[in-house]
Amino acid sequence: MALVDEKMLGTGQKLNVDNFYTSPFMTVFEPLNAGMEGQPDQAVGQSPVLEVSTTLVPRGSIKVDYLMIESASAPHVPPVSANARGFLQLGDALVPTVQQVPKTERLTPLAVSGALPMTVRTRDWFMTIDLKDAYFHIQIVKRHRNFLRFAFEGKAYQYCVIPFGKVCKETCPRQCSSLTDERKLQLFTEFYAVSYERQQAIILSGLEQHKVSRRRPRGPDTENTKRKYTFKYNVQQGGQRLALHIFEKVIQEKLGSQSEGTEQVAKVRSPLEDFRGKHKNSPHSIHPAVREGIREHILSFPRQPNHYSRLKGDVEREYLSPDLNLLRMFRLYKENNPASTAKFWLYRDIFKQQNLSFGQPRSDTCAKCDALFSKLTAATTDGERLKIAAESELHHRNAEKAYTQLQADTDWAKANDDCHVICIDMQGVVFTPNLTQSNVYYQRQLANYNLCIQEMGTDDPPTMCLWHEGIAHRGSIEVASCLLKWAETSFAPLVQAKERKLIIYSDRCCGQNNNWRVLNLMALLVSRRYFSQIEQKFMVSGHSFLPCDRSFATLDKRRKVSTLHTPSDVAEMIRGARQQHPFKVTEIKCADFRQLPDATLKRPPGLLITSMMWLKVTAADPWCVHTKGSHSLYEGWKTWLITKQRKNQPPPAPLFSTTYARAYEDPLPVKKEKHRDLMKMLAYMPAEAQAFYGTLECEE
After folding, report:
1. Residue 524: exposed, middle, or buried by beta-carbon count in 10 A (0-12, 13-18, 19+)?
2. What is the C-alpha to C-alpha distance for residues 684 and 690, in angstroms, rounded to an integer?
3. DSSP assignment of 351-394, as one string?
């Protein structure tokens, strides 16, 4: 065979497969006593003579054999086996087969003849065409190569060509090679494409019964053994009937053993009826009508598709009303079908097969999707439905385009150090204290705010800007102040001729991200040379799932198992939410919030930034803002002048102050009703929490 076995090698021979990476492989013999002239020939088995190394190389159309003889007396390898694959018989020497011709001037092609030993000299090379390895030039289909694998020294290899010549010998009783590949595929396809009864009929059509030609005595009563006949299978090919044994296992699996099932079928010559699943000995079996009735009842409830499913790949996912649950649905089913004997476990199992879920996340709500869904359910004609479906498809494509842009910008930031992409989003309010007493559910709690700033394309953890309602609100001033603090902490002003680009992704919340105050902040950071260009891209409303939301999901999971009494406990909970790459928490103080401007830039008539999807401010023309109505790269930029035009002079750059006053001189007071409820909960909190809530200001 093509693989050299260590048992086939003599003493002193060594098998090396370090470079064994494809098939077939090359075997090269290199003598260890090269250059030792005058030494007597050493027989294999007495001392090291040859070192064998094997490596795999691709073969061409003709394979050439080489043998390098080391002395004038021509010592050669004694024959290990005359039929050893991978070797060529030259007299009494086995010549290894290789592929490539070494670049040497001593390479001399010679014909194989009886005068070969008389013409060889030291370091002469010989070649011959080995027709025994012709099958090495027949490639194997790639999808079938995994069936020709073997393992050696912990590595797996597979053949790329036929390694062993014919699959079957001429004397093989099965005669598999007599069938063409097309006929084999046809037989396989036709057999497994029909029913169980039809498969038996196909087998019976080619089944032949013969007398047992030879019996082996296994006891005193040899003639009464169970095996009475021998069965052969015939296949039609090209108008001829071929007798094969290749379906013995299939016959036994389909009809039973030869001694019972095959002989029984051979007598009646008709297919056996398939009784699988049709027996009557299961009195508690569930009738298919019951299962179908349960399925129809489940699908009778109103369902709504999840429009985020297009991006997650779960296209068929649908949602039932959050007011429902499995037990309530099962009770309704029993009320409508009092005679049904179905149990709750059956109803639950059928429900799990329908790809349904209860409720729909509030973040997974799109006003346009909801409106289109209502129109679609109320549509009465096919024309209206097609029009609504086309509008919905266009809406979803615009949403997907925003995610495509985010991924493209992230890849660009990974490859370019002068580009930074961030996503910003505000987490849902975290209330403290989260006590377990029942009356706490009816009392007001302190609200904690968390703004996530997550830089894409880096391994840096997200930055969580944390404060509570006793320090500040959660509007545009707070978001702009957190972004300013993040930029001043993370970057230094640029020197001349340096470039740095910032891309901000956010949702369309007008009170926090999509407003003139944030646009003024972008111009402010450009004027202070923190960045040479800043772009802000907005996600489609209702389809604004950002990487920040994944971080918030981790925090929500941690919050469910944490006891949070004060905002400091919330900060510790965020820091310990994950072990690898823990979140960076920045506790924002009252003095950090600044009254950043929202009117330094002139608002040109006709510019409605809440309807734009892409904003850009650059240091090259700081007196302009560039806008786009979509995320399309083919849409041109529209330029708006944001500074006052001087007569006969170029427009000036916007002027920003070097410092800005605090947004809140003192901590914000808590509403009177909430402060009263917090004081009532002090009895359930530790001393440190009581001290914190005692410092909160109360609204008069």
Report:
1. buried
2. 9
3. HHTTTEEE---TTS--HHHHHHHHHHHH--SHHHHHHHHHHHHH
DSSP SS3 for 38: coil
- Among 452, 454, 458, 453, smallest CA distance to 417 is for 458
Q: Where are the domains of the chain?
A: 1-165, 176-212+227-268, 289-360, 402-641
Please tell me the distance from the alpha carbon of residue 34 to that of residue 49, in angstroms, as a whole number.
10
Judged on CB neighbours under 10 Å (0-12, 13-18, 19+), 200 is: buried
697, two tokens: 């200001």
Q: What is the pTM (predicted TM-score) of this model? A: 0.53
119 has a pLDDT exceeding 50: yes
Q: Which residue has the tokens 């006052």?
A: 644
161 close to 139: Cβ distance less than 8 angstroms: yes
Query: How far apart are the C-alpha atoms of 535 and 502, rounded to whole Å?
Result: 6
CA distance 134 to 175: 22
Rounded to whole angstroms, how far apart are CA atoms 341 and 286?
9
Q: CA-CA distance, 179 to 358, in Å (whole number)?
A: 57
Q: How many CA atoms lie within 13 A of 29 on its CB side?
A: 29
Q: How far apart are CA 540 and CA 657, in angstroms?
A: 34
C-alpha span between 693 and 678 (Å, rounded) = 7
Matching residue, tokens 């090919």 = 237
Q: What is the pLDDT of residues 240-256, one digit of tens each?
A: 666 665 445 555 555 55
Look at residues 286, 282, 278 and name the one whose alpha carbon lies nearest to residue 350: 286
Cα-based angle 297, 301, 307 (whole degrees, multiple of 5): 130
How does 352-376 read in b/e, with b if 16+ C-beta sit within 10 Å? eeeebeeebeeebebebbeebbeee
Residues 671-684: pLDDT tens digits? 999 999 999 999 88
Please give the angle made by the CA atoms of 691, 590 and 578, to the nearest 5 degrees. Answer: 75
Mapping DSSP to helix (H, G, I), strand (E, B) and coil, where does residue 204 land? helix
Provide CB contacts within 8 A for 504, sequence distance 6+: 422, 423, 424, 483, 522, 534, 535, 536, 537
- Cα-based distances in Å from 110 to 113, 117, 140: 9, 11, 33
Give the residue from 558, 515, 553, 566 showing the smallest Cα distance to 536.
515
Start-to-end C-alpha separation, the chain: 96
Q: Which of 156, 152, 157, 166 is nearest to 23 (CA)?
A: 157
Q: Are 409 and 614 contacting, i.e. CB atoms less than 8 angstroms apart? A: no
pLDDT tier, 205 (very low <50, low <70, confident <90, very high otherwise) = confident
Any alpha helices (H) in 577-645, and if so which ranges? none
The full DSSP string for 516-550 is HHHHHHHHHHHHTTS-SEEEEEEPPTT----HHHH
Q: How many residues does the chain have?
A: 700
* Contact between 586 and 478 (Cβ < 8 Å): no
Give residue-wise pLDDT tens across range 349-383.
999 998 888 865 444 567 788 788 888 888 888 88
Kindly report which listed range (190-199, 248-257, 341-350) carries the lowest average pLDDT score: 248-257
Q: What are phi and psi of 55, to 5 degrees?
A: -145, 150
How wide is the angle at C-alpha 409 spanned by C-alphas 408 and 411, nearest 5°? 65
